[in-house]
Design goal:
Length: 1140
């Protein structure tokens, strides 16, 4: 092939031959002789090394690619943990809860003759404490007890399956070396038993399980061997043998499941470092290829419509920089005062325990399996927690991601849309507000969506740069960004839409690179006249692989993070565990995400709906514009088409995520910003020429906004504190007594009316745009050309969110808000909610004493006691707050009996109630007077514990200001003066008040009054008055004596050293409390549990329970949880959560 000096050398329109090629001529646009000489010199120097570059690129790319693949199978070092127990030396047993619930291997050995040393009705061995409610159904037990016929029997059970039973009398006849061994195996084959019992040196046959040849004369009963469904859970080794009793030879040996506790070997570390260096070197080679092909790219750009205007991109105007400044400032403001996301505590505590665990486990679910194959981002959090766990600090990566994302959008993506955007200040402003409207409710926490979003945006910008410049290196970096986005979280899969949308154009870059390498050495001075020994370019095959393998090596760099300290087998096991336990929803179940978005909850709040609804609406307009196949002046059609393809492709790829939460929409931040800018231009006379249609589009936009506002202004957990969800008895945000959605709907109808008028009277538009009155004409033309509707609506939503949180911060001071906690962290007090929750550590200590010096029981019975009786409570209370855990492994009172005082009150504290199973009577109670202690700063409340279904108005607290030390001469209510001795008389009631009731009914709860706000500082005594006039059997009330507790902060009571089970939804609010550790498959025993408020406690319990493989699966077997009375300082009725 030959080329003329004026012929384009675009590889898309040329054919190549392996044996006959010619060097493309320089473009005739080069007019400078000096520049031509310099270009020729550079080309010659590059061509002389073209084949060498191809070889180096191939070698480094192959090494990097193969070693990345090999990292999945390179050897690792696995920790091995075993536990040995001997009853003779450890009679009390040991507690070792397994994170994986089930051991890798467990062997329990019992000498036959030693059984007689144990008393009857004794549990010799158990993997779950005997007092646990689920000891038999979850654990393995070896027990000596009479069977159904009364025969003294040794029985072995596993998860309520009888494995082995034999009369003790038969064991007494066995030889001294007789042993009964129970084995549990996790690695049993499909046809092998997982739990089985064997006996050695016995005189009886072990064949009762052989159904083909049973031994009818065998004394053994039971299955002897079972499958994996009966493998017992292990939280330790326990026994109920009396103190001093020994069973010689009773031993247990357990191998803990530590398959995920691995570290890389020196060989693996060395090869991974080599692979990373090789991959980076291959990228350098791609850069060299781009340098060699720059002349051809320059020529091709003169004919490439997709990149022809790249050189015309102007510098950002003042309006762009103003938008940049506003977005950056608002991101900073929101970082400190805005809402966080739902899983922040989840990820924070995963990162906090990772150092001790040796790997990043899923801590709250899935049996402690690692986050592989995703989770490299959590390693950044892990490193940051070593410095500080304060919310403003730990969320710095999110803040940086937000700022970087916006600057990439404003300075790279939006200019690519076309000339209509580059100087359009309103379009930039709209993009910025759309960006914030999405970022603020979805991306201000520790979840991976912000990281995925910035990588998604970077991938997009790199693809556009590769297309615009015709280079290979940006495309390789785009693949790298996509790979790390997928490695950061499941929604990173959306990056595949970008790669697919840009592949066709990027393929031309690859062809150009191949052409460059193949033509290297031709036409250079060093090869002229050299004849047979002339240096030729790379062959076609070498040229192709020298480009493909560096790109592959770049994309597979993510594998070095995935398999840094584990193998492919461990990753597959982690995926299997998560898949089997779930949630693992299919693509066709993605409707759950949209149902949640339309629900009334934080998942479907106003601020989450708006950006998504707007994106879908504008996307519909874009598809319509593209389908018309009519170019719009100033808008790049190829780029617009790619934006639509990326948006639709991302929505489709989102269906492949295994979970369906609305917070996954946080990855759409870049799409929403770009689509917002496009919508701003399309809704002007550039995109919609007919004025009537523009008004219809405006009406649709406002109507969609109205639909978004048919939801609550809901946020997650503590972010909701101070944010009203009900305004003027309406569930939706209101303005002037009307729902904001109604106002927007009215505005939409007004716009529709204008459109209808223009439809029936089209001449109006012409008259307004051509009128002789300048003001009307300019206003009409300005409205037609300026995209103000989207800008105003998006700005309103952003202002609505800011006003909600800044207003809460200002109005609630000094009460807790997210903003106040972050401000305190900047002042060096980073403990957040732990400094605001006040704890009553010893409730019984602060019960008020009767003025007359009598007993607490007599004082509670008081002067009037009609219908109240001791034990006047139902046998059970429908209570989902007071007692959340059912384990009872430690010695505690029978708290499941609701007639026992709650909240750690003394067992002898009096309780009077009105409940009767039948013949309910009207009841009235007036207690004796209780002496009030002196007012103290650490005793701001008067507390009364009650239960029942009656409203709080049934209870009144009355107080007196009389002198309790002098003879009382006040009236008794009948007008006659009282002359009782000091402390024994009737006192004048100075006031009465209904205490605050936090609910819920009918559970035990603490009514409260503020001192001195509700009860005056000069009050000397109080008494309680209760009225139950209802005769319904389901209407009742129970009361205990009042108390004036001295309170301490949760941070003082729990501290920062005690191990705590911090539920996943509260972790970020308690950064100073230490989450319990786990290492080598064994969990540390927590002393406390911190739960979220009633709105979120159900999701916390269900996520962490046995079915999910979470910590409640073993804490419920070990502990009884008792609710400790707590109160949120300065916001006494706020349900912040609970401390157990």
């Amino acid at each position: 092939m030959t080329t003329s000096p004026h012929q384009s050398t675009n590889p898309t329109s040329m054919t190549t031959d392996a044996t006959s090629t010619s060097q493309p001529a320089l473009d005739t646009h080069e007019s400078s002789h000096d520049n031509t000489r310099r270009d020729t010199h550079k080309g010659a120097r590059g061509n002389m090394h073209g084949k060498r570059v191809a070889i180096l690129a191939t070698i480094t790319g192959i090494i990097g690619f193969l070693l990345a693949i090999a990292s999945a199978v390179l050897p690792v070092q696995q920790s091995v943990a075993t536990i040995d127990w001997n009853q003779n030396t450890q009679p009390a047993g040991i507690t070792s809860p397994l994170v994986s619930y089930i051991p890798q291997n467990l062997v329990v050995t019992l000498p036959c003759g030693s059984v007689t040393n144990a008393p009857q009705n004794t549990l010799l061995f158990s993997t779950v404490p005997a007092k646990s409610a689920n000891a038999g159904s979850e654990g393995m037990q070896i027990r000596r007890a009479p069977d159904g016929t009364g025969t003294d029997t040794l029985s072995i059970t596993s998860k309520s399956h009888l494995l082995f039973a034999i009369p003790v009398s038969e064991l007494e006849k066995q030889p001294a070396d007789c042993r009964i061994t129970t084995t549990v195996r996790a690695d049993a084959g499909p046809s092998d038993p997982s739990v089985f019992v064997t006996a050695t040196a016995t005189t009886f046959a072990m064949s009762t399980a052989d159904s083909d040849n049973p031994k009818t004369d065998s004394p053994i009963s039971g299955e002897l061997a079972t499958d994996s469904t009966t493998r017992p859970q292990v939280v330790g080794f326990f026994t109920t043998l009396p103190h001093g009793t020994r069973i010689p030879g009773l031993t247990a040996h357990m191998v803990v499941d530590t398959r995920f506790s691995t570290s890389p070997t020196p060989l693996k570390t060395t090869l991974m470092v080599l692979g990373i260096v090789a991959s980076l070197a291959s990228l350098v080679m791609l850069w060299r290829i781009d340098r060699m092909s720059w002349r051809y790219r320059r020529d091709s750009h003169t004919t490439d419509a997709d990149s022809a205007d790249v050189a015309s991109v102007s510098k950002p105007g003042v309006g762009v920089w103003v938008t940049d400044a506003v977005v950056t400032i608002l991101l900073l403001v929101w970082h400190f005062f805005g809402a966080n996301t739902s899983d922040d505590g989840y990820l924070l505590n995963m990162a906090r325990v990772a150092d001790h665990a040796g790997y990043i486990s899923n801590y709250y679910r899935w049996l402690g399996s690692p986050e592989s194959p995703i989770g490299w981002y959590y390693s950044i959090l892990q490193a940051l927690t070593r410095i500080s766990t304060a919310s403003p600090f730990i969320r710095i990566p999110t803040l940086l991601a937000g700022i970087i994302s916006w600057f990439i959008i404003s300075h790279s993506l939006i200019p690519r849309l076309g000339a209509a955007f580059r100087t359009n200040t309103i379009a930039y402003w709209t993009a910025g507000m759309f960006y914030l409207a999405c970022w603020m409710p979805l991306d201000n926490g520790l979840r991976p969506e912000p990281i995925e979003a910035v990588l998604f945006i970077a991938c997009w910008a790199l693809v556009e740069r590769a297309i615009a410049n015709g280079t290979l290196l940006p495309g390789a970096f785009a693949i790298l960004a996509a790979a790390f986005a997928i490695g950061a979280g499941p929604t990173g899969i959306m990056c595949l839409a970008i790669l697919f949308a840009g592949f066709r154009s990027y393929w031309q870059n690859i062809r150009m690179g191949v052409y460059t390498l193949r033509t290297a050495g031709e036409g250079s001075e060093g090869s002229k006249g050299a004849g047979k020994g002339a240096h030729k370019g790379a062959s076609k095959g070498l040229a192709i692989v020298s480009i493909i393998f560096p790109i592959l090596a770049t994309g597979f760099l993510i594998l070095y993070t995935v398999f840094a300290d584990q193998t492919l087998g461990a990753m597959r096991e982690a995926v299997r565990v998560r898949t089997e336990i779930g949630p693992n929803l299919g693509w066709f179940e993605d409707k759950a995400r949209w149902i949640a978005l339309f629900g009334i909850s934080p998942d479907g709040s106003v601020t989450r709906r708006f950006p998504i609804f707007m994106m879908l609406m504008i996307l519909g307009i874009m598809v319509f514009i593209i389908a018309r196949r009519k170019p719009i002046a100033g808008l790049s059609t190829p780029v617009l088409t790619r934006v639509a393809g990326i948006s639709i492709g991302s929505l489709l790829l989102l269906t492949l995520t295994p979970t369906k939460w609305t917070h996954h929409f946080g990855t759409f931040t870049g799409i929403i910003a770009v689509v917002g800018a496009i919508g701003a231009v399309l809704m002007t006379n550039r995109g919609i020429a007919v004025t009537r249609n523009r008004w219809l589009a405006a009406a649709t936009t406002v109507a969609v906004t109205a639909l978004a506002f048919t939801a609550n202004n809901d946020w997650w957990y503590v972010s909701q504190f101070g944010i009203n969800t009900t305004h003027d008895e309406q569930n939706f945000p209101t303005f002037c007594g009307k729902a904001i959605s109604t106002w927007f709907l009215g505005l939409a109808l007004l716009f529709l009316l204008v459109a209808a008028i223009l439809h029936f009277f089209p001449s109006i538009d012409h008259k307004l745009s051509t009128t002789s009155k300048p003001a009307i004409r300019k206003t009409t033309n300005w409205l037609a050309s300026k995209p103000i509707v989207l800008a105003v609506l998006s700005t309103f939503v952003v202002a609505f969110s800011l006003a909600s949180f800044l207003g809460a911060y200002i109005s609630r001071r000094p009460a807790y808000t997210v903003g106040s906690a972050n401000m305190e962290a900047l002042r060096g007090r980073p403990c957040s909610l732990a400094d605001q929750v006040l704890v009553e550590p010893d409730p019984g200590r602060w019960i008020l004493h009767p003025v007359d010096g009598g007993s607490l029981a007599n004082a509670l019975a008081g002067t009037v006691r009609n219908g109240f009786q001791e034990g006047g409570l139902p046998d059970s209370i429908d209570d989902n707050q007071t007692e959340l855990n059912t384990g009872d492994a430690v010695e505690t009172p029978d708290r499941q009996n609701h007639k026992i005082p709650p909240f750690g009150l003394p067992l002898d504290v009096p309780i009077l109630g009105t409940y009767r199973p039948d013949n309910q009577v009207s009841a009235h109670l007036v207690t004796s007077w209780y002496r009030l202690p002196a007012q103290r700063d650490d005793s701001p409340l008067l507390v009364l514990t009650i239960a029942g279904t009656l409203k709080d108005t049934a209870v009144h607290v009355e107080w007196t200001t009389d002198d309790l030390t002098a003879p009382n001469a006040s009236t008794s209510g009948t007008g006659a003066p009282s002359t009782d001795a000091p402390g024994t008389g009737t006192y004048r009631v100075a006031g009465r008040l209904v205490p605050m009731d936090p609910g819920p009914t009918p559970s035990w709860r603490n009514l409260r009054l503020r001192r001195p706000h509700d009860i005056p500082a000069n009050a000397t005594a109080i008494r309680i008055s209760v009225d139950d006039t209802s005769l319904d059997t389901d209407k009742w009330i129970a009361v205990t004596p009042p108390r004036a507790p001295q309170l301490r902060t949760l941070n003082e009571v729990v501290g920062s050293t005690d191990p705590v089970l911090i539920d996943w939804s509260v972790g970020l609010a308690f950064p100073c409390q230490r989450p319990y550790h786990h290492r080598n498959g064994i969990a540390e025993q927590p002393k406390w549990r911190i739960l979220p408020n009633g709105r979120n406690v159900e999701s916390a319990n269900s996520w962490e329970d046995t079915f999910g493989g979470g910590p409640l699966g073993w804490t419920d077997l070990l502990y009884y949880a008792e609710n400790v009375p707590t109160y949120l300082n300065h916001d006494w009725l706020q349900d912040w959560g609970a401390l157990h």
